[in-house]
Amino acid sequence: MADDLGDEWWTQEDNSGVSEVEEDTQPITEEQPNKSTSKKRKGEKQIQDSTKKKKRKKTVKKECFITQEGSEEKGDKESNKNKKRRKKKKTITDVLTSSEPVPGTPADLMSLLKNHYSQTRSVIEQEELTLKDSCFLSCNDLTHSVSSYLKEVCPKWAKIQKQHTQTRSVVLLIVCGSALRAIDVIKQLMAFKGQAKVLKLFAKHIKVDDQIKSLSKGVTHIAVGTPGRICALLEKEGLTVQGLRYLVLDWNYRDQKLRRMVDMPEQRLPAWSPSLTAQTVLPTFYILSLVCLFLGIWLLITVENTYELKVDYTNAGTCERCFEMRKHAINSRTTCTCSVNFYVPKTFSGDVFFYYGLRNFHQNLRRYMDSRDDTQMVGRKNNLKAPSSYCAPFDYDANGVPIAPCGAVANSMFNDSFTVMYYPTNGPEMQVPLYRKGIAWYTDKNVKFRNPPTNNTFTLQQAFEGTIRPLYWQRPVYELDDTDLNNNGFINDDLIVWMREAAFPNFKKLYGVLNRAQGPFTQGLPAGNYSISIIYNFPVGPFRGQKELVISMVTWFGGQNYFLPIAYLVTSGLILVAAIVLTTVYVKVGKKGKNMEE
């Protein structure tokens, strides 16, 4: 109803508009009756033009919303036209879908053969490969099924299959592009094959040896397979071409990617496929077990000859008082000295290395490792007084002064000092001389760690003005070494060694190397009585840790570490157990003639 009423109303408005225009135009024609015809014609034209103008004006006034709707419709039409004008980009799939498959011709097949043998055969041999067109039976009708096509090619199939009696050979060989296509072709052969035996020749869950056995057991008339597996059977002489009379190529079929059999690129790379039999696997296992055993024994002997001595001084000797003192942060500024006596039962020959060791100290925590500023440690002026946010809360002190070096790693630096004394049987006590420099890596000393630039008039202390030492330090960074002024700042060896985090909670780090140029230490560290005088600064009570002095020799294998020899011995045992199990299985199962591969 509403639509009908609306349509009638629009027609009424249109008619009324036209009548008004006619009424306005009638007096104009009556006022000039005596003029010439030419003038009348001109007047008529003027009247028509004026009526058109008035009509347009009135339609605009009365039908303004109609014109708006019309403009919207025009805009929609124009947008639709623009959309239609935009052409979709054609893909390879679209092109192949629109194109129809072309049946194979003798020329196509010959060009395929020549391209395949062009690099391996001479020109004369390629000419000998040329076959006559009568050797090819092409399928012109693309609507044929496999069975109907084969019935036209082999009209006397029942007689031919009875005459075939050879093993490892077939009468009809169909080559497909994939295993799935081969299965479809076999299903379509039901109406054609009759009583003939059909064999699948592709590599989908079927081994080459199994297919050779199937070809050897009985007479096979039809074989459907892929090029790769057919070539493998021909190379191993599991399939011969003596009884072959028809070779059918699945030329026109296209897969989901619209590729034909000849469109699929084949690539052959040289490879070695070892035959895993009991005769090859079992000796390999026993040899590997022996190799790992010999390596484990050799490394174990080397580690046993590497002598190492550990002296735990956490709360030993007179250090118990210092241990209790360092539990409280109030006493951190108070110096505490203690000593521990120990005995060296065996002479350390050659170079001797002194380490400090910590237990239950986890340097491998992520937040701890990230709490440092490597750009500040390089000595850049911009970063010296503007430490990285990763160092928080050890980037600024309570007064807002930047800390150098910043971060939790530098703040927890090991700061105990040792003095080792030797008590010979004949003579007075003497201090064991140590090299305290040159214990850091070259790349760390010269690349990763550098001091701010200085000169003769601008000292290192002036370069660090405006910064403050870390919270748990007792000295600023430019006064770490009183004996050598060149070993201060960010290039201090002890600082560099500490800044290289350890991977395990129990670790040791180099403290010094024996100076063999003095007194009785030319041959190494002699056996006898010793003592350590310790400036006890580093607290271990909060994290329930322990501190120790480690004296060790170093060989080509490194220090005394039992991990690698034990790993080799355990690996040798596991391989030996596996070899014994495989040997038992082979003796019980393989000797009875059963297939070991199953």
UniProtKB/TrEMBL annotation:
Alphabetized SUPFAM superfamilies for the sequence: P-loop containing nucleoside triphosphate hydrolases
Compartment list: Membrane
Residues that span the membrane, as ranges: 281-301, 562-587
The name this protein goes by in its record: Protein CMSS1
Gene3D superfamilies, per the entry: P-loop containing nucleotide triphosphate hydrolases
Acidic residues bias (residue ranges): 1-11
Region (Disordered): 1-103
